[in-house]
Amino acid sequence: MSFVGGRWGISPSQFQFRSIVPLREPGPGGWKSARVTIQLLHVTPEGIERNVTCHIEVQVPEFNKYGIVLDEIAQLEAAVAADIAAEWVLKTGGFTATMCNNFETEMDSLLRKRIDGARVIKAM
């Protein structure tokens, strides 16, 4: 739930995927989703400089054109994308809503490159 800095500030275990559209037949299809609250913290020796809370939903196919998307792979790739996006967003700064939008957009872009069919959206 939080990012303090460095790799694995956002743990793969935070992305607990649940099936939202079951895979019904062989081939690409099905969806699983993980809703996550990410707390972006920028900590300096003087204390917390920024503290922004973002609510996101990560969706990945159960099966894409490359085969089965295992939960463990989806968790790992989501965590890596979240860490990189968080680091970038914290460096660029801005207002809370802007930072969350930028985080979501950046994480979505990064995750789509790693898992075909994945997406990151604002959690409702």
From TrEMBL:
Protein name listed in UniProt: Uncharacterized protein
Lineage of the species this protein comes from: Bacteria, Pseudomonadati, Myxococcota, Myxococcia, Myxococcales
